[in-house]
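call fold(seq) -> tokens
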Amino acid sequence: MDTSHSQCLTSRPLKVIFEEPAKYWTDALPIGNGRLGAMVWGGVASELIQLNEDTLWTGVPGIYTNPNAPNALSEVRNLVDSGEYAEATAAAAKLVGNPAEVYQLLGDIKLEFDDSHLNYAKETYQRQLDLDTATARIKYTVGDVEFSREHFASNPNQVMVTKISGNKPRSLSFTVSLNSKLDHHCQMKGKSQIIMEGHCPEKRIPPLMYVNDKPKGIQFSAVLDLQISEGNGVIRILDDNKLRVEGSDWAILLLVASSSFDGPFTEPSDSKRDPTTDSLSVLKSIKNLSYADLYARHLDDFQNLFHRVSLQLSKSSTRNLCLKQNQYDGVPTAERIKAFQVDEDPYLVELLFQFGRYLLISSSRPGTQVANLQGIWNKDLAPKWDSAPHLNINLEMNYWPSLPCNLSECQEPLFDFLTSLSVNGRETAKVNYEASGWVVHHKTDIWAKSSASDGNVEWALWPMGGAWLCVHLWEHYTFTMDRDFLKDKVYPLLEGCGLFLLDWLIKGKGGYLETNPSTSPEHEFIAPAGKRASVSYSSTMDMAIIKEVFSVIVSAAEVLDKNEDDLVKRVRTAQSRLYPTKIAKDGSIMEWAQDFQDPDVHHRHLSHLFGLFPGHTVTTESTPDLCKAAERTLHKRGKEGPGWSTTWKAALWARLHNSEHSYQMVKHLIYFVDPQHEKPFEGGLYSNLFAAHPPFQIDANFG
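ret:
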């Protein structure tokens, strides 16, 4: 065995590297423990650590039913049956509902150092995110003192930890404070703690509040605890809301945070949870743990997940591997992204792959909320697309790596969330569609919104979100072979989903069962009358998802000896009557039941290829003609599109066993996006490896 080759492969550094502080949010380094997240900017004289807690959302539990929907549904169906698709699209606006709520931020830790730090030696500055240890590190020199900072988010102890030190005694002096864009106030506790308490708006657009009003939105609390070296240094209180450290060797900041969120069915005003009490309780539980203890526990927990999978790529001979690798050691990640179209650095692909696993571990753990449109990282009160889970590709893509990348535990929040969605979805199905079972549409929030959102029909009216998520349930079972999970969690959800789909399907042309109304997510067609429309019947994606779910129900029933159940018999009968996937005149997969003209052949969504991936009903072995048509469809769609579209295309090409085209899509993803000159829908990567729609959208990092 070539031991030098082996050592070279196993010693590859998995680091996101910068040689200067962050200028933009997408230059900052993300850390997280599944629930708490932070973006570390690495400023020298003034540092900003932006904080998130995954239960901070606007709103309260909502009403997800519309008693007027059945009449509107009947009107839309009649118009579709008459071939009046533009009119059906207009009428379908009566079926859309209220907007989802909005993911919020927690606040900021601000560190201010003395003026000498303005004159730091720029050539000594280092800022790195070490994926292997889930630790962000900053180093720089001021005069003859080297300063260092380490940041990590501990899952086992539910605390954000920062250690700041200088390599000479009494060299460390700074001021620390907490702040937030949300309504809040700060107070001191003792001589070394800052408590920040506040609340989220009870509505997307906050109502006017008066002095004596009790906030009705989610309450939150963050507590910062400051420790310094014994013997050297003092802590002073400034302005009743800041802590000043003077002449210390080192300092440790512990940040804990909690909210009053007590599940999607409990009004925040009725919650019995006290965020400040909960936060102080966490601090009390770790008061006897040293920094080394906290770090050891963090490493053991994180690496138990992260070290399960390694990836080693090369385009060079064994003899040149180490030489090639060494040329990238210490090179800023942004420079490697910019060079990729020329050098096609395989180690950058490895880094990007492991960065996706790192982000999933950091944003989704058992007991947390699902990873939303930005994972858990958000700097805005009104983030793009509300940072809300979108079910027509984005939330599903967030969890694509959970099984093949051996992080099955990280998918548990998705199933907990799906259970909550099914509760609200049962009422939506009953009232809006007079159907059994449960339904969820394209966009949701922490309150498990199940009804159609507001906005254009082409994206809002899509009752297939819950059905798609059910496919993840079965895949989780096939990965774990946990029969109890299948019996207790999966099958009840599949039953409800199947019952809705059976009721949603109606008898259509040619004896087929069809969906009506039906859309292909976020896309329009030109109706025969020449008008743009988005509503018709039996879109290819609708049928592909239903076929997948029905197949899963039958398979699950076989495992659980439920073949004779009435639901299973009904599903088997319906399977042969589902509208088939068809090939258009130009040889591509038809996106709709009719071969409508497509006004945007390069559209970002690949909805009509669901059966190929992530579905399993179109395969090179069983449906070669459809695979040939799928290849034609991918060529027709082209390369361009946002990050998530690019990664979906890569997966689709891979299912077609076309490695060259799949790699070309990976290559297309890896180009540098300048935050000052970003263009919508063009994809790419920011300097910290966050994927761009633009703006930042985390799904492509997972795809």
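The first strand starts at residue 15 and ends at 18.
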